[in-house]
């Protein structure tokens, strides 16, 4: 049965390109008084990895906090950045823990984890149940089915992250329902060769170019 949090939360998208990972978030603007950039849904976990959160923002912050703690402790003990697979497994175990005891409730959020380690770019999705899978492309939230359909059309093995941010923007603009939903803010981040394999926000000039391309594609689709 479809979970309520999945129906209500906004869409997040992650894709693994040939040179890195791109994460994108559709963040609704609930009030015109809210400062742009507040209540972020994209978080850096460590230098080489980041999380995109779908669902309850407060629950997401707890997951992010645990991920940061796990990554910092691993580097302190082993003297190197935590492999993305190990980080995904530990975060998934923590999330699963909250489904086992009656005094805890399951997390009302899901996350997509992207990173770059010695095995190259990695992308994982962690569900509230504690399930964790490795993906070429993943989506969570209200528009996840439509987003997955669009991701499957992409040749991800041939796509660079510069091209990937445009495709992610197109997908998020495409699944956004202007008739029912309020305006939204697009958040994009990447970890790739161009960012020195560190998780960073996409530079503003590239973000604006991706928005313009997505809006143009949407207008062209409406015209047809």
UniProtKB/TrEMBL annotation:
GO cellular component: cytoplasm; nucleus; proteasome core complex, alpha-subunit complex
Superkingdom of this protein's organism: Eukaryota
GO BP, sorted A to Z: proteolysis involved in protein catabolic process
Keyword Nucleotide-binding attributed: no
One protein family per Pfam: Proteasome
Secretion signal, residue range per the UniProt entry: 1-17
PROSITE patterns: PROTEASOME_ALPHA_2
UniProt KW keywords: Cytoplasm, Nucleus, Proteasome, Signal
Keyword Transferase listed: no
Known function: The proteasome is a multicatalytic proteinase complex which is characterized by its ability to cleave peptides with Arg, Phe, Tyr, Leu, and Glu adjacent to the leaving group at neutral or slightly basic pH. The proteasome has an ATP-dependent proteolytic activity.
Family listed: Belongs to the peptidase T1A family.
Entry protein name: Proteasome subunit alpha type-3
Annotated source species: Triticum urartu (Red wild einkorn)
């Amino acid at each position: 049965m479809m979970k309520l949090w999945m129906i209500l939360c906004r869409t997040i998208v992650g894709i693994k390109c040939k040179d890195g990972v791109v994460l994108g978030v559709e963040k609704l603007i609930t009030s015109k008084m809210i400062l742009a950039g507040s209540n972020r849904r994209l978080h850096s976990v460590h230098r080489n990895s980041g999380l995109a959160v779908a669902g309850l923002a407060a629950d997401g912050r707890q997951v992010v906090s645990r991920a940061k703690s796990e990554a910092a402790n691993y580097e302190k003990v082993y003297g190197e950045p935590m492999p993305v697979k190990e980080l995904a497994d530990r975060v998934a175990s923590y999330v699963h823990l909250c489904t086992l005891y009656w005094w805890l409730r399951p997390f009302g959020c899901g996350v997509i984890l992207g990173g770059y380690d010695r095995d190259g770019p990695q992308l994982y999705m962690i569900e509230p149940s504690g399930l964790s899978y490795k993906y070429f492309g993943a989506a969570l939230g209200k528009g996840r089915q439509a987003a997955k359909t669009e991701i499957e059309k992409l040749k991800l093995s041939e796509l660079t992250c510069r091209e990937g941010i445009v495709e992610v923007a197109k997908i998020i603009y495409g699944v956004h329902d202007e008739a029912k939903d309020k305006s939204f803010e697009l958040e994009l981040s990447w970890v790739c060769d161009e960012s020195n394999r560190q998780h960073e926000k996409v530079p503003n000039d590239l973000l604006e170019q991706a928005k313009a391309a997505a809006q143009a594609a949407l207008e062209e689709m409406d015209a047809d």
